[in-house]
User: Which sequence fits this backbone?
């Protein structure tokens, strides 16, 4: 491709004429500035000869291919993303045959789906080892225009351990809105799933311990609204979670029996809101018949995703 301008037009013509002495036809792409924009033209030029075969001049035709070039560049970038994606990606037709697969699906570290060979036109999806009826139903939903995300454990023949795969299904719409193909993106999320399950199990274990403690342990907003608390103090006071959660701490059963105690708690909450850990006893009503217990500590809890303090209450 070469640049063309009014200043170089004669030079380009001379150059083309020289090249045409070596051949009868010449095909070139030229960048031409038009109204402040650079347009790309594809030109075909030929020698114009008289009856004796003598070259009389040049004749040619040009067409603007700027948009075509842009579309080709977009396709190249799309193909680059498709082929270099760390995820397994493939495209399925309505007959559930593989139309195209990316390079990663051929050599994944842990297979999510049985690997098709290249872009095997005879390879069907799903393959042996999967519930065909369930997968077919899911794909049919996608061919109706639905985008689907799912995760599941799969045990492959010859595999020592099951693999947790996360898959996303996207319909590929044609210009007229019809859908003939579906893009499937799969990723091995086994490590993430194992970590998530371990975190959930640990959270359940800690929650069980907290719910068994008779001391009140709760979390509140910087304004003093109770967000969560353990279960045993509620049972001792004959309360339900809705009697406490969403209320200001000073309006709960343990504190609202005395305006003096309410003011004391408000003062403590204000200090905690400024980052202070407060270990100051006050009398809280507990159980039925009511008894007065000391509540010794409140401290700020800074979350990684927030700059303001969450208050942690402990009776």
Assistant:
């Amino acid at each position: 491709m070469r640049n063309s301008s009014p200043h170089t037009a004669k030079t380009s013509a001379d150059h083309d004429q020289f090249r045409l002495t070596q051949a009868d036809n010449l095909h070139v792409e030229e960048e031409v500035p038009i109204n402040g924009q650079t347009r790309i033209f594809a030109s075909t030029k030929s020698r114009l000869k008289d009856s004796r075969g003598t070259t009389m001049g040049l004749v040619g035709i040009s067409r603007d291919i700027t948009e075509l070039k842009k579309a080709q560049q977009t396709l190249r970038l799309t193909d680059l993303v498709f082929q270099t994606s760390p995820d397994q990606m493939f495209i399925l037709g309505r007959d559930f045959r593989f139309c195209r697969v990316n390079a990663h699906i051929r050599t994944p570290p842990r297979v999510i789906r049985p690997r098709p060979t290249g872009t095997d036109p005879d390879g069907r999806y799903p393959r042996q080892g999967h519930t065909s009826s369930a997968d077919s139903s899911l794909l049919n939903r996608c061919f109706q225009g639905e985008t689907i995300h799912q995760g599941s454990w799969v045990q492959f023949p010859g595999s020592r351990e099951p693999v947790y795969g996360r898959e996303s299904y996207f319909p590929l719409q044609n210009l007229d809105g019809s859908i003939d193909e579906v893009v499937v993106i799969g990723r091995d999320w086994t490590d993430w799933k194992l970590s998530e399950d371990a975190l959930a199990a640990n959270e359940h274990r800690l929650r069980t311990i907290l719910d068994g403690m008779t001391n009140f342990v709760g979390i509140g907003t910087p304004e003093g609204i109770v967000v969560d608390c353990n279960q045993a103090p509620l049972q001792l006071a004959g309360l339900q979670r809705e009697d406490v959660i969403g209320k200001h701490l000073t309006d709960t059963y343990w504190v609202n029996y005395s305006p003096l105690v309410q003011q004391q708690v408000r003062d403590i909450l204000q200090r905690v809101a400024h980052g202070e850990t407060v270990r100051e006893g006050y009398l809280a009503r507990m159980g039925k018949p009511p008894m007065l217990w000391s509540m010794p500590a409140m401290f700020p809890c800074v979350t990684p995703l927030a700059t303001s303090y969450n208050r942690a209450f402990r009776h």
User: Anything to note?
Assistant: Residues 277 and 303 are 16 Å apart (CA to CA). The helical segments are 9-20, 66-84, 132-143, 190-212, 232-236, 259-273. Residues 5-11, 111-122, 127-132, 303-310 have pLDDT under 50 and may be disordered. The chain has six helices and 15 strands.
